[in-house]
Queue: 2 jobs
Job 1
Amino acid sequence: MANRTHLVVMPGDGIGPEITAATLHVLHAVDRLLSLGLSFEEVPIGVAALKARGTTLPNASFEAARQADGLILGPVSHNEYPAADKGGLNPSGEMRKRLDLYANIRPAKTRPGLPPVCGKPVDLVVVRENTEGFYADRNMFLGSADIMPTPDLAISMRKITREGSTRIAETAFRLAMTRPRQKVTAVHKANVFRVSDGLFLECVRAVAARYPDVAYDEKIVDAMAALLVRDASTFDVIVTTNMFGDILSDEASEISGSLGLAASLNAGNEHGVAQAQHGSAPDIAGQDRANPSSLIGSAAMLLAWLGDRRSDPRLVTAADLMERALDETVAKKEWRTADLGGPLGTRAFGERVAAVIAGIAMQR
């Protein structure tokens, strides 16, 4: 057996356990077909871990994730958690900080049979800086960057560093070199944040100078939000800071067809985490109604990331099979989940994707 791949699984809260189970069903299918040597270790996080162990992220669960080849992280209901000092850590944010997952890669691509919301088909990727920006839990050595000095005054601080800006720009330009259009758009608000976004742009421009074959332009964030609605098909790779990237990637995914289809990979130099772009949807939890496409697509991105790092074509092939199967499945209305106008539940959709993978493999 070639290299084995050990994946830690954190099912999370709300619909997390359901979409995670469907994703694992698909992963087992590609593992059987391609002899990938995948192994899975489920560890507790979230509400279940809080009740059992007094914390939403037990040390043992994090340590298992740190030592794994990759991580599958289900959605979490962190807005419902108690304060951090009472055990309510956000597993998603903690993973990004502790594992230095500085790049959040979020593709927005129109799938066959699902028309884009705003006209032309979309095929872009938002490359979002993931460890600083306006996120209050990632900006201070100790404490939160969201503070309230008096009952009537709230202050939030934003951190932009040369290192963070340069490495996310490098990620964006390397990605653009692998895509047909080879174009990067930097999104900013330097007309207001002259110092912090000025530093961000300075770093991106320096990286752009090292990639003369990649077309480069810049857009102010509010204009970018409007341009995506007008015609998102004109964009390829979008690189931006944390909060802008969070907002624009959700917008782009919805425009491309549905946020429920939006995959996401959190990656650093040593670790990769597959994580659905959407939340935990507690209102439909336990009803077998959730669309698992986002986490399935995210798991495919994780396999492709591992395959690229290891120069392992089996993992890259597996990722391609999963993506093709998602395309073929959502293309048929009778195979879709309820949010896309279809009749299938979460479990049946995962089973369908796995069956389509087997069918594609037989044709190869």
Note: The first strand starts at residue 5 and ends at 10.
Job 2
Amino acid sequence: MNYKQLLSVCGTATNAFLNLARSSDLNVRRLLLLTPERTTKHVVAEVLLDGKWAIVDPTYRLVMKDKQGHLLTRRDLQNPAMFAEATSVIPNYPAVYNYTTFAHVRIAKLPLQGLHLRVALDKVYPGWDEAVDWSLLLERESFFVLCLFIAGSVFFW
């Protein structure tokens, strides 16, 4: 995680962190911080520690903690005072990287903007994006196509 070019892009740094964490048997997932228009503004990781999803920002090499050293969740970081406290250790940490709007899955990456799939899934199965780690399927297009091909083959067999 010391390769400077790798760490300069939040998505790449987070992917590297996720891969390293998974190889160490940690339960981790990607968290996309979104603009009000639901475009991605920053990517961080959530690590399941002590029964809660703690936030890690690999780009800034930062584990989000309060002044007492307690790990912080995205819900904790929605509080502006807690966010300011956690990020005060990094000079000029962008305040726009708040946790008001977030997602685990980039549906917009699917063809035709996901055909408004997020809205439908939110209505049918609230919390669907946290129920399963979808990142491998959606972030690796070749794997997605392979799974789609296998599902289609089984369906049409």
Note: The chain has a mean pLDDT of 81.
